[in-house]
Amino acid sequence: MFIRETILSVQNQTYPDWELIIVDDGSTDNSLSILQELSANESRIKLFKRDREPKGAPTCRNIGIENARGDYIIFLDSDDLMAPYCLQQRGKYISEFPDNDFWVFPMLIFMEHIWDTGRLTNHTTSENDVYRFLRSDIVWTISCPIWKKSALMRLNGFDESFPNCQDHDLHLRAIFEGLRYMKFLEEKPDTFYRKHDLDKIYEPMKPLKVLIGVNKLLKKTTSTYSGVIKNDQRMKKNIFLFLFDTSRKYTRNQAFQEPRELIDFVKRQAGITKWGYFRLKAYIFLSSIGLNRIRGYERLWNLLISRKAYPKTWGSKRYTTEE
After folding, report:
1. pTM greater than 0.85 (yes/no)
2. Does residue 176 come out as left (phi exceeding 0), alpha (psi in the -120 to 50 range) or beta?
3. 189-242 residue pLDDT tens
4. Distance between CA 197 and CA 158 in Å, rounded?
5. Ramachandran region, residue 315 (left: φ > 0; alpha: ψ -120 to 50; beta: rest)
6. For 296-318, what is each residue's pLDDT tens digit?
7. How many CB atoms within 10 Å of residue 120?
8. Which residues contact 90 (CB under 8 A, 6 or more apart)?
9. I need a labelling partner for 167 at 20 to 30 A (CA). Which of 23, 46, 137, 212 fits?
10. Does residue 204 have a cis bond before it (omega within 30 degrees)?
């Protein structure tokens, strides 16, 4: 529905030396005809169709990486936009700090036009990036970094087994694997996240489906990096917070066995404290017998786990200087 606007935002770049790779995931609307029309009239646009399983964003993004001819890559969802100065701004910092594997820039949330909310997807805090990601406070979204293609290849791209949360997985792996990066989140936003309920890859109205990816992310991260996590108390604390938020989403949808199994798995792999384990199990049990329908129940649990001390920062800061 918005793909034409997205492509136009790339064509309007002040930096002209770009290549746009579009991977069709088997669209059933008129998107493919639009893409064919636009690519026929623009030699810098390359259109590919997903030619292997599984269906989904990670496979399509990997196909894009494989076919990219340039040294640097930015990922755009089909409904998000680039500012005209995006590539020029990012290229400037790549030139100044060339030894990094990726560079991270700010993104603005919008509804109808790009300045209507003025809210940033995220911003810099004093907390370490890996700690924030481990408690599901998203430090940057998929379009915020510009990557060296070679760095993405070292990470083996996206994990194609993820139905969602593949971005979170990639960003955590990049940090754990020691990739070098810099953030420029105080600069002018150069990409724009469209907040709407149409044609979203991430489907908030299907929470149990979304939780498949969250479950996989927690299991993969805690098993792959268990040695690091076990020796870092803050990592364990933040994974506990992620587990609690995940358990809350499960129980609100009357699913109780999945969070029990997830908590047991994470405890074996990464080690959460006995007190943390007891609180998680108690929360699920009490929710399963209906106490989560009592007024004040969730507020009490927020106090028990000190949830207020670890706020999520998505959309919490306003960008005040409009072009």
Report:
1. yes
2. alpha
3. 999 999 875 444 444 447 788 899 999 999 999 999 999 999 999 999 999 999
4. 25
5. left
6. 999 999 999 998 889 999 999 99
7. 21
8. 72, 74, 103, 105, 146, 190
9. 46
10. no
The H-assigned helical ranges of the chain are 3-11, 31-40, 57-67, 86-96, 129-134, 149-154, 166-176, 207-224, 226-230, 233-252, 257-270, 274-288, 297-304
CB 101 within 8 A of CB 147: yes
Provide the token pair at 180: 């070098």
Amino acid at 137: D
DSSP character at residue 54: S
Place of tokens 């953030």: 183
Smallest Cα–Cα separation from 293: which of 252, 255, 258? Answer: 252
Chain position carrying tokens 């998505």: 314
Give the three-state DSSP class for 153: helix
| Contact (Cβ atoms closer than 8 angstroms) between residue 230 and residue 272 | no
- Residue 182, both tokens: 């810099």
**Structural contact between residues 233 and 134, judged by C-beta atoms closer than 8 angstroms:** no
| Residue 108 to residues 41, 158, 249, Cα–Cα distance (Å) | 30, 24, 26
Amino acid at 142: I
